[in-house]
Design a protein that fits this description.
This protein is mainly alpha-helical. Helices cover about 80% and strands about 0% of the residues. The N and C termini lie far apart (about 70 Å).
């Protein structure tokens, strides 16, 4: 029973504190994006790509997860989804405000 309890604690602690492969990439990509003044598609892709390279070079076991074109594309899509939920960029807030103001102006017309 003690062993089962210890195993359960280890599993829970690992899941609670360990980041997934995609989350590691998203964290680095978000840091890269925050350093940019203007973010367009090219800069966005470059930050994600460079973050992929950094994460896989630090842990070669992760490279097997993106060893194919489909793996790279799938990882990119997952990272993109994580970034859209977790990465808060200053320009996003400004765009959201502008979008809300524009929609209010259209409603008032």
């Amino acid at each position: 029973m003690k062993r089962l309890f210890i195993l359960l604690i280890v599993v829970i602690a690992t899941n609670a504190y360990g980041q997934s492969f995609e989350e590691k990439i998203a964290t680095l990509a978000c840091e890269c994006l925050k350093k940019q003044e203007n973010i367009d598609d090219e800069v966005y892709r470059k930050c994600i790509s460079n973050s992929m390279v950094e994460v896989t070079s630090n842990n070669p076991d992760d490279f097997s997860k993106i060893g194919t074109v489909e793996g790279i594309q799938g990882t990119f899509l997952k990272v993109d989804a994580i970034l859209s939920k977790t990465c808060v960029l200053p320009y996003k807030k400004e765009l959201e405000k502008k979008g809300k103001n524009e929609s209010r102006k259209k409603k008032n017309r």
